[in-house]
Amino acid sequence: MNDFFFSIVQPLLDWYASHARVLPWRDEPAPYRVWVSEIMLQQTRVEAVKPYFERFTEELPTLAALAEAPEAQLMKLWEGLGYYSRVRNLQKAAQIVMRDYGGILPDEPEELAKLPGIGAYTAGAVASIAYGKPAPAVDGNVLRVVARLTVSRENVSETGVKRKIEQELKAVYPEGHAGDFTQALMELGALICLPNGAPKCAECPLQTLCAAHAQGIEEELPVKQAKKERKIEPRTVFLLVSDNNGEEKAAIHRRPDKGLLAGLWEFPNTDGALSPQQAETFLKEQGILPLSVKRLPKAKHIFSHIEWHMTGYLVFVVDLPNNPELTWATRRELLETYTVPAAFKRFLDRFLTE
Q1: 3-class secondary structure, 247
Q2: Taking a C-beta distance cutoff of 8 angstroms, is the pair 266, 255 a contact?
Q3: What residue ranges of the chain have pLDDT lower than 70?
Q4: Closest C-alpha among 62, 56, 155 to residue 104
């Protein structure tokens, strides 16, 4: 099998040299920048990451700056990217590197993988792209490419299959071009060997080497474990607004420090899809006396394992209720100070444009 993998190296490198996307973290592949980009790119599209990466590295240009950043700044820079545990682990890892590694990110994948939030894939990506180590970064894109090239019907969801592919690729890493080879494999899966539809085989530099293409079964591969259906959770969200001395404020509430969206700010909400009458009764039970209750358009947010189907109400109140669990924030404060996750974006946008 090694002979086969050797045969894909040069065609991939030649293709990558002329087809690689221009991305901000590729312009200057310093270890810190590569690491931040790889964490951001976990479960997030490249185009969505670009502006976040540029803003994040402008405000926190070094590992030391990240380690020392106040939580409010950190969360605000990440606002809208989702999966906030990523940025919390990013800072924890930066603090460990400052303390235990003299402020220099390790260059060996085994050491990188000891840091919070860094798994085998990210460790391989940083080690190969930033440090030129022969360390594969095997994600879903790479698993799909290899499964099709070799007509493998092994379940790519299994850890053993992934490890085997890592070892096969590691054996053929080209000296002096480790980072390019890692990124070429990623790029091929992202741009050409596409999931959920027909791959662009006519544009593929490995077309003549691909066994799945030769048999016309590209779309049958890879074999992977079926995803569990997401749990549907109906929720009712309240956009509570009060005019306080001529300036409108909206009520927000901080989520618990553990669990989904831990420690972030949200608009008050409750389980279930409440009718207008039920919503008004619920508010009164919380000591909130509404002037008006107006239904808002329904919203939906998809997490990895659940979906929130949200019924929303715009509620004007006369005075700020004496409720210690609520914080009343101006539009400017919501834009600059408090981190409201993307799940509540439609409600945030409504308040900002009211």
Answers
A1: strand
A2: yes
A3: 1
A4: 62
pTM: predicted TM-score of the whole model, two decimal places: 0.91
The string of pLDDT tens digits covering residues 266-275 is: 999 999 999 9
Q: Please give the full DSSP string across 142-177, using - where no structure is assigned.
A: HHHHHHHHHT--SBTTSHHHHHHHHHHHHTTPPTT-
CA dist., res. 305 & res. 303, Å (int): 6
Of 38, 79, 218, 280, the active-site residue reads 38
Q: What tokens appear for 171 in the block? A: 């054996």
d(CA 266, CA 253): 5
| Token duo for residue 4 | 């086969």
Provide CB contacts within 8 A for 114, sequence distance 6+. none
Catalytic residue status for 203? no
Helix (H) or strand (E) holding 290: strand 290-302
**Length of the chain measured in residues:** 354
Measured N-to-C along each axis, helices 31-41 and 85-100 cross at an angle, to the nearest 10 degrees, of: 160
d(CA 286, CA 280): 10
Cβ atoms of residues 33 and 126 within 8 Å: no
Q: Residue 29's beta-bridge partner residues?
A: none
Q: Tokens 């803003």 belong to which residue?
A: 55
> How is residue 225 annotated by DSSP?
P
Q: Which residues contact 334 (CB under 8 A, 6 or more apart)?
A: 250, 252, 340, 348, 351, 352
d(CA 100, CA 116): 13
pLDDT tens-digit series, residues 7-37? 999 999 999 999 999 999 998 999 999 999 9
* Helix H or strand E segment including 293: strand 290-302
Secondary structure class of 270 (helix, strand, coil): strand
Within the chain, where are the H helices? 2-19, 24-27, 31-41, 46-59, 63-68, 71-78, 85-100, 109-112, 120-131, 140-150, 159-170, 178-191, 211-215, 276-285, 331-336, 345-353
